[in-house]
Design goal:
The complex is a heterodimer of chains A (306) and B (259). With 306 residues, chain A is α/β, with parallel strands linked by helices. Chain A contains eleven helices and 15 strands. The C terminus of chain A is likely disordered. In chain B, 74% of the residues lie in helices and 0% in strands. Classes of the chains: A alpha/beta (306), B mainly alpha (259). Bound molecules: adenosine-5'-triphosphate and magnesium ion.
Chain lengths: 306, 259
C-alpha cells in the first residue's frame, strides 16, 4: 500500500465553530509530511483526528488502510504520537515513563525495559533514566516524549510541534533523530510553525490557514512557484511602498508589505538592488527566498499580486 | 461508528491500575499515615469520650457500635479523594489521561482503571482501620474477614460517585462542595454514629439511598457477628448502585475527554 494516511473532505467542528473546513491530503509510506500553519490554523485538530483522539465531524480518514472511526485501537497500536502539550508522567522517572507506556502496547515488562534503555541511549538520556521528569530540561523532556512515541516501534510517527520552545541546539538534535527515523523507513507526519524546520525535514507539506489548505507541494517547489529564487527586503519600506513598487515594476514578479517592511520578488536580484540604489532607497537586503516568504505571502496580510 | 453511550473497555484497564500502583509504591508511607489518624481520633473522641455518656446502641457498647462504621468511612474517604482530586490532577494538570488515550487504550479504559484504583484504595484504607480496631479488641467475629471485599465493592461505588461529580463539575474548586454537600452528609447521616431510625422519615429514606448506609450495616453485622440475610440485600444494593454509577461516570468523563 502506497499511502499510509488518507484524508478525505475532513471537517472538524467544536460546538459549531469550524476548525477544519474540508481538507484532503495523502501521506505516502516513508516520507516526512508537514502541516504548516499559524496559530489556530487547525493543525492540532487535524492530527488529533488522525491519531484517533478526537472524533471526526465529517469526512473520512484512513490510516494504514483502516478507518479511524471503526478501528482506532488497531491503528493506535501501530502508530507513535508526540502531542503538542507536554504529557510525560511527572510522577514517574524517565525510565518508568517508557516502561509504563509500553504496557499500553501490550509489550512484556522485560522487553519494555530493554527497549526503554535502548531508546534512552539513542536520545542520550541514559544518565537521566532514574530521574523524575521534572528534573529534565525542556529539550530533554521533548526527546523523552519522542522516545516514548517510539516504544512500540511504530510505522507512523505523528509529531505535533516537536521543537516548539527548544533552543537551536536542541532543535538540531531532534531534527537529526527525525531524519534518521525517516532513513529507517518510519513515516513521519509533523506540524510546525517553523518554516526552516519544514524546509529542512519535509519531503512534502501543506500550508493550512483558518482550517483550509492554501498550498501544497515540496518545499523547494513552493518557493520557486510563489517567490522565485531571491527576495529583496526593504527595511521600513512600507511607507514608500507604492513609489518603490511603481518604479521597479519591470524588475519584479510581485511584492508584499508586512508591518513596516516591503518584500520584493525580483526577476534578477542584483539588478533590482542596483536600481533601488540609484533611487536612493535605504536599508535593503538581497537574500535567497525561503518557505517563510511563501508562508507570509499566503497567510500574511497586504498580499498584492502584479 | 462507536455508540456514544456504550462503554468501550479492554484489559488495558489493568495497565492504568498498574501505573497508579507504581506511583503508590513509592509514596504509600506518606499517603497512608495521614489517613488512619482521623478514624483513630473519632474512635477516641466519640467512642471513648462521648461513648461514656451514651447508652448502648442496637445492643452494642457505643465504641463497638461506631468502630465498624469508621472502617467503611475510611474506605469512602480514600476513594472520594482519589477519584476527585487525584483523578482530576492526573487528567487536567498532568495530562496523563490524554497521553494514555493516544495508545491503544480508550478513554473508558483510563477512567475505569482510575475508578478501580479508587476501589483498591478503599480496600486498603478500610482494611488498615479494620486491623486497628482488631488491635483495640473491637472485632468480635471471624465474619470480619469478609469485610475487605465489601470495602472494595463500596469503594468502587464511591469512586464512581466521585467521578460522576468530576464529569459534571470539572473544576478543582468544586471538590470542596462535593465533600461538604455529599461526602460529609453521608458520613454523618448514614448510621455510623447513631441508628438512622432516629432520623426524620424523609432523611431516613435518603439515608437508605446512601451507599455508605448499606456498607455500614454490612460491616457492623460482620464485625460484631450479627449476620443475617439482610446483608445480602445491602450488598445487592451496593452492586446495583455500582452498576448504575460506573457507566454513568464513564459516559460523563468520555464527554469531557473526547472533543
Ligand atoms: N477543544 C476545543 N474546543 C473549542 N475550540 C477548539 C478546541 N480545540 C481547538 N479549538 C479551536 O480550533 C481552532 C484550531 O485549533 P488547533 O489547535 O487545531 O490549531 P493549531 O493550528 O494547532 O494552532 P497552534 O499552532 O496554536 O497549536 C482554534 O481556533 C482553536 O481555538
Ligand atoms: Mg496546535
Amino acid at each position: 500500500m502506497d499511502n499510509v494516511i488518507e484524508v478525505h473532505n475532513l471537517v472538524k467542528k467544536y460546538n459549531g465553530f469550524t476548525a477544519v473546513a474540508g481538507i484532503n491530503f495523502q501521506v505516502r509510506r516513508g516520507e516526512c509530511f508537514g502541516i504548516l500553519g499559524p496559530n489556530g490554523a487547525g493543525k492540532s485538530s487535524t492530527v488529533k483526528m488522525i491519531y484517533c483522539f478526537s472524533p471526526v465531524t465529517a469526512g473520512e480518514i484512513t490510516v494504514l488502510g483502516m478507518d479511524v472511526l471503526s478501528r482506532p485501537r488497531e491503528i493506535k497500536a501501530r502508530m507513535g504520537v508526540v502531542a503538542q502539550e507536554n504529557n510525560l508522567d511527572p510522577d514517574l522517572t524517565a525510565l518508568q515513563n517508557l516502561v509504563s507506556y509500553a504496557g499500553f502496547y501490550r509489550i512484556s515488562s522485560a522487553e519494555a525495559r530493554e527497549r526503554a534503555l535502548e531508546l534512552l541511549g539513542v536520545f542520550g538520556l541514559e544518565e537521566w533514566s532514574n530521574h523524575k521528569v521534572d528534573d529534565l530540561s525542556g529539550g530533554m523532556k521533548r526527546k523523552l516524549t519522542i522516545a516514548r512515541g517510539l516504544i512500540n516501534r511504530p510505522e507512523v510517527l505523528i509529531l505535533d510541534e516537536p521543537t516548539t520552545g527548544l533552543d537551536p541546539q536542541a532543535r538540531h538534535v531532534v531534527w537529526q533523530q527525525l531524519n534518521s527515523l525517516r532513513e529507517r523507513g518510519v513515516t513521519l507526519l509533523l506540524t510546525t510553525h517553523y518554516l526552516d524546520e519544514a524546509q529542512h525535514l519535509c519531503d512534502r507539506l501543506i500550508i493550512m490557514h483558518r482550517g483550509t489548505i492554501v498550498e501544497e507541494g515540496a518545499p523547494g517547489k513552493l518557493v520557486e512557484r510563489h517567490i522565485g529564487a531571491e527576495v529583496v527586503e526593504v527595511v521600513k519600506g512600507a511607507g514608500a511602498a507604492t513609489e518603490i513598487v511603481a518604479s521597479s515594476k519591470d524588475f519584479i514578479k510581485g511584492h508584499l508589505v508586512v508591518g513596516d517592511n516591503l518584500y520584493l520578488y525580483p526577476l534578477d536580484g542584483r539588478e533590482l538592488v542596483r536600481l533601488l540604489g540609484q533611487l536612493g532607497v535605504g536599508r535593503l537586503y538581497l537574500r535567497p527566498a525561503t518557505l517563510e516568504d511563501v508562508f507570509l505571502k499566503l497567510t500574511g496580510r497586504g498580499l498584492v499580486e502584479e | 461508528m462507536i455508540q456514544p453511550f456504550l462503554p468501550d473497555v479492554s484489559e488495558l484497564v489493568c495497565q492504568v491500575f498498574k501505573r497508579n500502583f507504581t506511583v503508590f509504591r513509592r509514596t504509600w508511607m506518606v499517603s497512608m499515615s495521614f489517613n488512619f489518624v482521623e478514624p483513630l481520633l473519632y474512635l477516641a473522641a466519640m467512642g471513648v469520650g462521648l461513648g461514656s455518656y451514651v447508652r448502648p446502641m442496637e445492643g452494642l457498647p457505643y465504641l463497638n457500635f461506631i468502630a465498624p462504621g469508621l472502617t467503611v468511612t475510611s474506605a469512602m474517604f480514600a476513594a472520594a479523594y482519589e477519584c476527585t482530586y487525584g483523578s482530576f490532577i492526573r487528567m487536567e494538570f498532568q495530562k496523563i489521561y490524554n497521553a494514555i488515550i493516544a495508545t491503544p487504550a480508550s478513554a473508558d479504559d483510563v477512567v475505569l482503571g482510575d475508578m478501580l484504583w479508587g476501589g483498591f484504595k478503599s480496600l486498603l484504607y478500610g482494611t488498615v482501620i479494620l486491623l486497628v480496631i482488631l488491635a483495640l479488641g473491637l472485632v468480635r467475629s471471624p465474619w470480619a474477614l469478609l469485610t475487605p471485599p465489601v470495602f472494595l465493592l463500596a469503594g468502587i461505588t464511591f469512586a464512581a460517585m466521585s467521578m460522576v461529580w468530576v464529569g459534571l463539575v470539572p473544576s478543582i474548586d468544586s471538590f470542596n462542595y462535593f465533600f461538604s454537600l455529599v461526602v460529609t452528609p453521608l458520613f454523618l447521616l448514614s448510621g455510623v454514629f447513631f441508628p438512622v431510625d432516629d432520623l426524620a422519615p424523609a432523611m431516613r429514606a435518603a439515608a437508605w439511598l446512601s451507599p455508605l448506609y448499606h456498607s455500614v450495616r454490612v460491616a457492623r453485622g460482620m464485625i460484631n457477628g450479627s449476620v443475617g440475610t439482610y446483608i445480602l440485600a445491602d450488598i445487592l444494593w451496593l452492586a446495583v448502585l455500582a452498576l448504575l454509577l460506573v457507566p454513568l461516570a464513564l459516559y460523563l468523563m468520555r464527554r469531557l475527554l473526547i472533543k
